[in-house]
Amino acid sequence: MSETTPPDTKPRGPGMMGLIKAAVIVAVLVVVEIVAAAMLIPSAEDTETLARDLARASKGEDLAANSDKDAATLAEGEATSEVELGSFNITRFDPENDTTLNIDFTVFGVVLAAEQVEFQEAFAAHTSRIQEQIVMTMHGAQTSDLSTAGLGLIKRQIVEKTNRAVGKPLLREVVFTKINFVQR
């Protein structure tokens, strides 16, 4: 009499193919999320336009009229002047990375030639406040902001804080003639 052994009745796991399928599904979902995020994140120009629109809206100005006027002002070749806002050497300690960051830079502001005298008078009256805002902006800047080629975020912050300090939007843009930063 031959006895047959019953088949193995242990439940088996999903196996290697099941794990591979799960990994592929997760990878596809991650790629789809990355592509969707990349499509939704605004460009630097979009962010700058939005920041200007929000600043104007908070002042109660008409967005359509002023955005066309600002673009036309600089596009028409209206004469501009550069005014030195200061030379700075900032050292700051980053306790998270246990590093020290040395930032050495000179900042110039671009104003319309017709408004240069008015800006220089306002700048002379508020020099310490403006320079403090520039220093605080650089102290608050992330290393990634400083290594960005155009320094767009830092420039916008300096323009906004300077115009707020002088009480009028006289400063059109900021130019760094030299900026060096060393992380030790």
Automatic annotation (TrEMBL):
GO terms for cellular component: bacterial-type flagellum basal body; plasma membrane. InterPro entries: FliL. Its main location: membrane. It is a single-pass membrane protein. It is found in: Cell membrane. Pfam families: FliL. GO terms for biological process: bacterial-type flagellum-dependent cell motility; chemotaxis. Keywords: Cell membrane, Cell projection, Chemotaxis, Cilium, Flagellar rotation, Flagellum, Membrane, Transmembrane, Transmembrane helix. The chain crosses the membrane at residues 20-41. The keyword Cell inner membrane does not apply. Belongs to the FliL family. Controls the rotational direction of flagella during chemotaxis. This is Flagellar protein FliL.
